Structure formats: C-alpha cells, structure tokens
Amino acid sequence: MDAAQETRNKEAFRHAVVNTLERRLFFIPSFKIYGGVAGLYDYGPPGCAVKSNVLAFWRQHFVLEENMLEVDCPSVTPEVVLKASGHVDKFTDLMVKDLKTGRCYRADHLVKDYCKDKIENDHNLSAELAAELRHVLAVLDDLSEEELGAKIKSYGITAPDTKNALSDPYPFNLMFKTSIGPSGLSPGFMRPETAQGIFVNFKDLYYYNGNKLPFAAAQIGQAFRNEISPRQGLLRVREFTLAEIEHFVDPDDKSHPKFSEISNLEFLMLTREDQVSERPARRIPIGVAVLEGIVNNETLGYFMARVYLFLTHIGIDKDRLRFRQHQANEMAHYAADCWDAEIECTHDWIECVGIADRSAYDLRAHTDHSGTPLVAHEKYPEPREVEKLVIAPVKKELGLAFKGSQKMVVEALEAMGEKEAMEMKATLEAKGEADFKVCTLDKNVTIKSNMVSISKEIKKEHQRVFTPSVIEPSFGIGRIIYCLYEHTFYTRPARDGGEEQLNVFRFPSLIAPIKCTVLPLVQNQEFEEVARRIARSLTAVGISYKIDITGTSIGRRYARTDELGVPFAITVDSTTSVTVRERDSKLQIRVNVDEVASVVKDVTDGVSTWADVQWKYPTHSS
Amino acid sequence: MDAAQETRNKEAFRHAVVNTLERRLFFIPSFKIYGGVAGLYDYGPPGCAVKSNVLAFWRQHFVLEENMLEVDCPSVTPEVVLKASGHVDKFTDLMVKDLKTGRCYRADHLVKDYCKDKIENDHNLSAELAAELRHVLAVLDDLSEEELGAKIKSYGITAPDTKNALSDPYPFNLMFKTSIGPSGLSPGFMRPETAQGIFVNFKDLYYYNGNKLPFAAAQIGQAFRNEISPRQGLLRVREFTLAEIEHFVDPDDKSHPKFSEISNLEFLMLTREDQVSERPARRIPIGVAVLEGIVNNETLGYFMARVYLFLTHIGIDKDRLRFRQHQANEMAHYAADCWDAEIECTHDWIECVGIADRSAYDLRAHTDHSGTPLVAHEKYPEPREVEKLVIAPVKKELGLAFKGSQKMVVEALEAMGEKEAMEMKATLEAKGEADFKVCTLDKNVTIKSNMVSISKEIKKEHQRVFTPSVIEPSFGIGRIIYCLYEHTFYTRPARDGGEEQLNVFRFPSLIAPIKCTVLPLVQNQEFEEVARRIARSLTAVGISYKIDITGTSIGRRYARTDELGVPFAITVDSTTSVTVRERDSKLQIRVNVDEVASVVKDVTDGVSTWADVQWKYPTHSS
C-alpha cells in the first residue's frame, strides 16, 4: 500500500469514528446552535459516562492504590502565581496576523502546511529544496521568532484565507486572562495546568503527610489554553481535563519501594539515542531500562510502568503505545529526564501523558517568589558537626562611616559567599582595610578591620534541609479518551448479508458508558413488566442500563447498543428466563430473570469472565 | 439563653469547626503562600475525598437511579449564549466605591450592616427609627439602585475602612470576563451556572432520548461568580461546584410516574403564606402538599422529596433542613413555583439547593436568539382538523404600489395577528381598501383588496409542537458540604479526664474521607507487617485507608482519626487477630486478620450494620 492510499484509509477510518461519536452524542461541538466555538466540545451522555469511568479508575489506580493526597484547587489563579511558574512570560505561541483582515494564525502551522504541501504536490521541486523543507519540518519546534519570520518571508507565505500579506511573528500568551474582583487591579488567569495548585500547597501537604518524603499529591480538574487557531478536532482544545500527579522525593534517593513489583514489565520505548539514529521503538523491561541508565531513576520508571498499566487496562492497544524520551533540546533546562506516553491514532503519535522529573524547579520558583520556604527536613540520627561561615558586621562603626548607606553596606557584607568573605578576611588581616563593591550603591567602599568580623565556626546540625525533587506524570484525559475511541472502534457486516457495515466500540466493561441494555424481544406488556423488574434490580446492584421498548427489530436494537459499546444486552423473550448477549462474540446464554442482574454485575465488575458464565449457563441460539 | 449568648455560642462552635477543618486540611485558603485571594478555597486531601464521595453518591442517586443524561460542557462560554440567558444584562450586584481609595463594596451589605449595628448597639434609637430599619432589612433584596443610594445618603453611610464618602450604587456584572482566541473580538465569560450548556443541547438530547418527554439531563461542574467582596467564608466563594438537573416535561402534564413512591414522605416546608404570617415551618407529607396545591405539581414535589432523601442520606440533620417557598416577588417572573432547600448552620438558614419550575423560559430564550427551534413534538393518535389563518400578500401589486418599501409592507402584513387580519379582511370586503400601519416604515399605507388575500382554511395537523417546561434542581455542592461539616461535628472529653475536648466528625461511612485507619498498637516489626498485609487487602477490596505507624499513643492516634471522621480503626495487637473500633461508640470487636478487610468493607458499604458485626464477633475491651 502506498503512502497516499494509507493516508486515505486513515482518513476514512477517522471519519467513520468521528461520525459515529458525533451522531451518538459521545461529543457535541459546544454551543452548536450558535455556530459553535473552535476548540470547545461538550461530552454528551455516553462520552460523559466514559470520561467519568476513566476518571474513577484513575482515582482507584493512582490515588487509592498509591495512597496519594488528592486536592482540588480553583481554576481562577492570580497573576503572581503564574508569574512565579513562568507562564506569564513564557506560555506563548508565535502568531502572525493577516495585515488586512486582522485574522490570526499560528506561525509554525503556516510554515508546516507550506512545506508539506510543496513536498507532496510540487512535482518540479528540486531535490535540494525538498531536503531543506524536510529539515525545516524536523526543526520547526525549535525555530525562533526571527527564524520563523524569515521562512515566511523567503517562502512568500500569505494568509491562507485571503492571500493577504502577513505580519512578522510575535508571541501570544495562551492563557485566558480575566480580572479578580471589581477593582480591575487584580489580574488573574484561568490555570493552564493543575500542578501549580499542588506546588503552592507543598508545605501543608508535607505536614499532612507527617513531614515525611516521598509522597505524592494528585489533582483532577479543568485546564485552559487559549489556542490561536485550534485544529485536529478533539485533540487540540481550549478547555480540557487534566489529571496530574506531583510525586515529591529526596533528590539524593529516587528509589521506589514498589519498583520490584513492576520491574519485569516491558513496553515500547523510543530512547533519545534511538530517535537520533532513526531506529524504531524497542520493547525493554523497565527494570533493565533503569539499570542501564536509559530511564533516569526508579521512581520515574515506576510511574512509566503504572501509566502503561493504566492505559492498557482501559483499552489502549499496547502495540500502539510507546514511551518517547525527550531530546535534550525539547526538555526544560531544569528537567532531569522526561518521557511522553504517546498513543498512535490516525493523526499520528499523540502525546497523551507526560512523565517528567522536574527536579527542584517548581518548589524553588515558588519559594523565591513567595518568601515561604518550600523545603523538606531530614533529621540526622545524631547531630553532625559542620563548619559554618559567620559574618558579623559591626553596625556602630559602619553607621559612623556610611551614615544613610549603612543598611546597604551591612546587607552586602552579609550576602558575601564563602570565597569572597575569606578573601576579605585575609585582606583585612594583612592590610587592615579592603575594597568592597556594594551593588545596591553601585560603587566601591573601603571596609576597615573594625567594621566586620569574619570567622568560621563549628556548629552542630540536627537536620538536613533541602528542596525535594518533583516527578510529574500529567494526563491529558480528553486525548486519552479520543485515542481509546479509535483503538476500540471496528465495523462488521450487518446480519442480513447486505453491504451495510455496523459500528462497534469494544470498550472494556470498566469503561463502557452503559453496562447493559434491556430489550423486550417484542412489544408486549408482560415482557415490558419483566424488563422493568430487571431494570430495578440492575439499579439496586449499581449497574447502569438503558431500556429500549421501541418496536424496532431486535437486530437493529443490538446494532444501536453495539454502537454505544454496551458490553451486554439482556433480551426478554419469556417471563421466567432471559438471554444475555455479549457484544463482540454476539454469543448468548440463558439465565433466570432473578439471577440476571447479579450475573451481569459479576461479569462487568470482573468477578467472573464471560467464559465462566458461558460454562455455567446454557447457550442460547437465536 | 439570651440572643447575645446564643450568638456567642454559635460563633464559638463555628470557630471550633472551621479551625478543625483548616488544621486537618479539609480546606485551605487558595494561594495561601501568596497571601490568598478572597473567596477562593482549595479542598485539601480529606475535603477532596468528602467532595468526591458526595458527587459519586449524587450520580448514583440522581443520574443512575433516574436514568438521566449526564453532559459535561466547557466553562468558557461565548457572549451570545449568556446574552440570550439574560446574564450579560442582569447578573449584577449593586456596588459602591470609596470615592478616595476606589475600594468597592456591595451596597446592600453596607446598608444591612448599618441597620443591624444600629438596632443592636444604639440604645438611644427611637422606636420609630428601629421599626424603619427593621423594615429596610426585610425588603433589602427588593431595593432598586436609586432606593439603596437614597438610604446610603440619608443614613450617612461611609466606607467602612476609611470613613470616606461613597459613590452612588451602580450595577457590577458578576461574571469573570475573558476573550476567546487571539483577536480580542470574541468576548467570553466563565459560566455563572452549568444549566445553559444543557439548554443549548436540548435538541440533540431530546433526539438521544428517542424524541420522548419527560427526560432529565444533568451536569456537574465548576461555576464562577466574581463577587464584589466575598464574606461568610466557605459559603460565598468565587468559584464553586454546581450539580444541576434540567428535567424537561410537557407543560400540560407535570405528573411524575414515580410520585407514589415518595408521596408519604414528610419534611419541613415553609410556605409562601406561612412566611407572610410569620408561622414556623411545618412537616407536611409531599403527597398532601401537591394535592392541596401548596407545591405546584408532582414533578416539582418528586424532586423536593428526592433532594430531601439525598441530603439526609449524606448526613444532613432532617430537623435543620427545610424547604422554603419563594415569594412571588423573589421568584423570576416566568417561574411557576420555586422552593429552596435551606440548611441551618451557625450562619443562619443557607440556601443549598434551589428547585424551580422555570416553565418554558430558557428554551424560548435560546430559540429566539439562535433561530433553532428548541421544541418537542407530540404525535396525535389521528390527525386533527384545525382552522388556520392564511395571509397571502400579492407581491406584484404591492411592488407596483410601494416599490422599495414592498418588503417591509409584505412582512408587516404576514405578521398580523388573527384579530387584526380578520378586521382588515372585513374592511377590504366592505370598502375595497384599508388603512394599515407599517411599524418598520413608521407610517400608515393604504392596502387595496387586490394586494392581499386573507382567509381561514381547515388544515390537518398530525402533531402538537410545543416548548417543554423545565424543572431545575440546582445543588451548591460546597455549601452542602460546609453545612454537613457543621451537622456532623461534635466534641467529647479526652479519656484521661482532663479538660481537653476531642473533635469528631460523625460522617456516614458513605461520605467519610477515609473508611478506616490501620494502627499497630506498638512499634514493632511483626505488627507493622500485619498492618501492611491488611492495608493491601483493603486496597484489593477498594476501601480507602490510612496507616499510622508513628509511635504516638493509641489514644492520641484514635483522636486524630476521629477528627478526620474515619468511621473504623483497625488496631493490630497480635499477628492473628485484630480489633475494629467504631468511631462514635468507641466500642471494639475482635476479628481475624484475614477477615478484617471484608468485615470493614461490608459495614462501610452498608451490607451489614455495626450492630450485625457486634453480634457476630466477640467484643474487645481495652
């Protein structure tokens, strides 16, 4: 199959999935009756149920099993917090404007589209230019404002809608801005991630955890990104649900107590080196990856394994899931290591979970900006003796010498590092005075030996004080769900042998929006009463269901329920026993009316398998 | 007890509750290390778990049991939607500004504070003025901009912080405003309620429900309210979680199929008349209330009962819960009836759930603004013959007569009501011409009989088309949770007989943030291993726990866990059997290590009661 055909197949498949999703209200373009807003989508009833199931399992798998501290912080965030985190200054995309209409575009998108179009459609393209365009595509994310602008100029790229000239690229901050309170003096933003809410609470959470490391905090919530021009449908949206974990750990000990439980697990990894050498992803046991230093530390590796288990458990195909390591240039300067869980869908490999060792960056930033030390303490078994520098300015003498500038001189003296202080001590002992630059005065002053005493003292320390490292797995819930739709969707011919293809989502029961449907075989009051009795017993055991008493043919009703990914259908064809049909095999068993709710509950909860109940109950052939 | 003492007691109680909540991180003032932001709070670990349990039960009690369609829409909302709903124009509070500092206050708060202070503290107050101030307090919510301004002037109210003069009151819109996309041309707001997301999707949801009424849609999500100056701590915040239900029903038939299941339920109601006559709330069976027309209809009554069951099940005291009917003047003009579930706490009776019959208002507003008809259809068993007015303008003649104004005349003719049209018909038949006012031209024209034909025709109608009524129960989750804290909090003396009082939250197991603690009686490796084994089996059955292996005394550790409202404590005092202690009775039973997880699971899930297991297992006396 050639590349063009493959692209067409992918697009046809995506069209079938998205069409089914939209028709069955898994999602709805938000505010549709008003023409919609790009990048905003609603979860309709089945989509909302899938999301709620994914989040419930996330809580079970991470928060409950790992004893994490879950918090829930507001989306509205004052500027000072996002200034500290760097988002006010750096959370930007480069934008160009149509110089006539004012319409905005992402600069990199236009360059990308230009290069792709040329490569695919310009048959007169020189080999040299083709190679250049391919190179541009490869380094697109690294291009500066000026470099992108130069490309747009040299390729003569114009506004796609009007062919008008474009402005130079300039950064646009992607946060939704607002104002807190009526004064207009307190700028705020809708948070671009949930993590900051955890970082600013570190001190309280550490205390709550008995002042012990390691521990993890978690948060599920909305995050916002005011995209310049959202594309890629459900994968690039302006408001989305994030589930984030911040695992705080001693930077000197990133081992994990439960690592041995998962060390034999192997999954696809695409290492930094393999990417450079253009080698494919390899299945590596995580224990080996950590041992060989491919993955930086046990805790990072532990979370990669837990993410792998989470994603495959909800129905992501393990062969279309890989962990790609960040290149040094795409990783934040402070990060120790970073791996993205990428899931392959018809849009390419999509980053769905980022797992980063962010070192001490975030806690340090908030310590610096807030003045509250976000640190951990480790008590030594017995006090340790350490040599400490002691700088004692003699305020009286300094006051006489410097008058109004005294305070600045004192502060500058106290702020000296060890090397500088010991040099001054030596100079003072040798010459009786020393030249000293006071930055806040922007001049040199002369310090005499009676103005300061500098010494080294032996002090007893009872504890080590340090800023913990943060290991952050961050889940884009909407993207995971979209990929899950693609991985579980398939079609099969209708029973009547015609051309019609029926759609099925093979969701695991855990994730299915509804666990079963209840269908009276024919419209009749007796069967309907049985159906309602079964419905009540399903509610009693907490199994969600949909009852369909329309006169539509049973085959058509099965097709409807398959299209919602409902794993089981109960068909009422008598008043004493009913059949249970499994979605993918289409096989049926016969069960007593009074037993059926608990049978369905056991299979959906995973207490029994479909094979178990097939063995226990008679097969029904329709 | 006099009123002042009662106030002091309430404040002391509130202080004890809030202090415990904050110390144990049920909540945390958001962005605390940066000085916080008024009206924004985080849920810390136990608070977040309580919230997540309340929401899970809400989903079970409403969405699952009533087969509702749950949706999940974005918070960012374009202006057009909130223009249609009326929020852009009317979601305001009246504000005054300190004329020197620019600080803003809610006008009604200042007047309220002034009146209360005068009444309580001014011992020279004349009986006449006291009566006036009491009247102002009673009608405060109804005062207009001008009336409030006049009160502020005549009482000489100044800015509380500076005593500076105040501006006249003016409306401040309470929505957080933002801009969607980079152009600055698409204003948007953070939604003030989740309901609009459901209304704009009515057409799709109705289709999803098989084009059948009644059905209900539900949404849980964040809502935002940019308060002028938030007070009352956790009860008046700028971002909060709402859970809203929109039940769509035929306006001609508001009966409810499950009404008989709850019609005997009785609870406190404070009717419109009882409020006017200053009579106390009465316990009335909801069946009687609907029958006597106290509650407008069965569906409204059904939801009141379901709300009562929900609130009391999570732990709200039924004697401090009442349903207060809105007075005609506090209800929106379109509403048919409205009841607030109010919960008494130390701040007074607090509106926690609003249950309103909003008639067809919302769907009509969005129909008008979007041009998409949000209507339902009822097929008649057989077609009905109806007389229909037919107005047929003769465009050729009108064109000749009115040239460029033809379109306006045609539209005006077509827009005539039945009465006006039949009068014109009579005039045309009698005189051959008629005077006709065209509003869009702002003048009268002469219509001749050859310019329009007006007739009544018998047409067959196959269906009735109508706008459904909406019955809306809307839950303020944060307020409910705060009241729950107050209703479940109590203190008891420490065991050692000293003065110390220990704090307890008597949360039902369903709601408790953690279901049990695991405590080795003394620090020893064997007991710790047993504790970890029990912890693993608790995780396996899905029971959240906290393990406490600190060397603190067992009594102190029980006190800590009581303060978090943990219902059960497992104490490891041997390697074969352990004790289970119930929080409120402090009684203990002895259970085998291998059985303990399932015993705790059964009592927390409600499969057995504490009395059941007390009977089954030997009592342990420590």
Automatic annotation (TrEMBL), chains A, B:
CC annotations in GO: cytoplasm; mitochondrion
Keywords: Aminoacyl-tRNA synthetase, ATP-binding, Cytoplasm, Ligase, Nucleotide-binding, Protein biosynthesis, Transferase
Database matches in InterPro entries: aa-tRNA-synt_IIb, aa-tRNA-synth_II, aa-tRNA-synth_II/BPL/LPL, Anticodon-bd, Anticodon-bd_dom_sf, Gly-tRNA_synthase/POLG2, GlyRS-like_core, tRNA-synt_gly
Keyword check for Amino-acid biosynthesis: no
Main localization (coarse): cytoplasm
Pfam families the record matches: HGTP_anticodon, tRNA-synt_2b
Gene3D superfamilies found in the cross-reference section: 3.30.40.230, 3.30.720.200, Anticodon-binding domain, Bira Bifunctional Protein, Domain 2
One record GO biological process: mitochondrial glycyl-tRNA aminoacylation
Cellular compartment(s): Cytoplasm
Bilayer-crossing regions: none
Primary enzyme class: ligase
Residue ranges of every copy of the Aminoacyl-transfer RNA synthetases class-II family profile domain listed in the record: 15-493
GO molecular function: ATP binding; glycine-tRNA ligase activity; transferase activity
Reactions that this protein is recorded to catalyse: tRNA(Gly) + glycine + ATP = glycyl-tRNA(Gly) + AMP + diphosphate
EC number: 6.1.1.14
Record family assignment: Belongs to the class-II aminoacyl-tRNA synthetase family.
Subunit (UniProt): Homodimer.
Protein name in UniProt: glycine--tRNA ligase
Native source species: Erythranthe guttata
